């Protein structure tokens, strides 16, 4: 059926006319997408300093908590001077070794992640940088919208140009999920170890960093084989 429709189209319209139609449709879609981005574009100045705002992921959790019978939200944002340096180092080792040298996107890390996924024959790592993860958590949802990655890229480039690396780390450490309903490193430190983010030891920081790929299933409480292997890999750099 589609073969006959395509044949009919090319009989009725020339290649030049077809290309004009395609370009017109693309242009209209681009305008719609650009308009959408403008409607969700954040005020970057409000993210440069001060108390960390609730992320989209946290807001989504709060709205869905009761219907899913999830535990209450645990979230206590803290400034960077109240977060252990061990935690910062463990995070960078685990999530984004080139954090201080890239502009938001690390193509080498992405390629390495994809090669590892192919070897494992399953999706293990996404290759996203800390900046990309921060943007996803702060402004988007966990939906599989195919345009989301494109929007995340635009937001990441903007955030890298507007905020310092230290601030990006602060935002991410304060909104990232460490378990069901546990957001931010302060809440994670209290929940798993009965301490504060400022007092996390090397071992505790490594364990929290090791949970980040899939914190609901792999964390210091579940101690799965995947989690223990992650801990061993990160510990090599300490």
Walk me through the structure:
With 238 residues, the protein is mainly α. It has one domain (41-235): Biosynthetic peptidoglycan transglycosylase-like (Penicillin binding protein transpeptidase fold), CATH 1.10.3810. 59% of the residues lie in helices and 3% in strands. It is built from eleven helices and three strands; from the N terminus they run H-H-H-E-H-H-H-H-H-E-E-H-H-H. It has helices spanning 2-12, 15-40, 56-68, 85-95, 107-120, 130-139, 148-162, 165-175, 185-193, 202-210, 225-235, and strands at 74-75, 177-179, 182-183. It has a three-stranded mixed beta sheet with strand order 1-3-2, covered by helices on one side. Helix 4 (85-95) packs parallel to helix 10 (202-210), helix 6 packs across helix 8 and helix 10 (202-210) crosses helix 11. The N and C termini lie far apart (62 Å). The relative contact order is 0.13. Mean pLDDT is 85; it is low at 112-125.
